[in-house]
Amino acid sequence: MEKVIVSGLLIIASIVAAVLAITVLAPSSVDSKNSILASNQVANDFVGTNIDGLSAVPEGGNGLGISAWFKNVGSVDVEPISAMDVFLVTGDRLSGRYVPYSETPTSTDRWEVVLPQDSDVWARGETLLVKLSLETSRPLSAGRYLVALTTPNGVTAEIFFEYGPTPTPTPTPAPTTMSGVVRGSDVRTAGR
């Protein structure tokens, strides 16, 4: 428990240090009141951005599609959605690939927004559904993976999921009827 508290305090301290550095150093490089306002807005957006990974599931059983849900739990809207970065990483984090944004189908890896439809703003409290479409020559193999989504200002959320190819069903033979077979209960009633 102490490690969690110390880690939380270190994170808060690093955010405060970043805000102070932006607020103090950025305006000194440019002589303008607008630069102070702009640096404060950047710091506020960074501190106010927070996202959670909700769920990710492979789609179609062929290793070429993944749906992932994220929720904006911060106090600011995230925009533009198309400027976010999406990565597909193996569960051991030893390998992975960048998946670029694209609204139109391509022959390479890509991701697109399913929800919210027709919006480039991810509003506070809203759930974002993204669909990853993978290159047909590089489908998922069986194993554990994670989808990582990073906002334009550098806040990241991750979702783990398992993938195993859908087994091909084996046909089961139809039951056969056997004529002339007498069950045990029928033997007792037949002799009376």
In short:
The protein is of the alpha+beta class and 192 residues long. Helices cover 27% and strands 29% of the residues. The protein folds into two domains: 2-48; 51-163, Immunoglobulin-like (Sandwich), CATH 2.60.40.
Which features does this protein show?
192 residues, alpha+beta, Immunoglobulin-like, 2 domains, four-stranded antiparallel sheet, globular, disordered C terminus
Could you characterize what this model shows?
The radius of gyration is 27 Å and the shape is globular. By secondary structure, it is α+β, with helices and mostly antiparallel strands. β1 and β2 form a beta hairpin. It contains three helices and eight strands. It has helices spanning 2-29, 33-48, 184-190; strands at 51-59, 65-72, 85-90, 96-99, 110-115, 127-133, 143-150, 156-163.
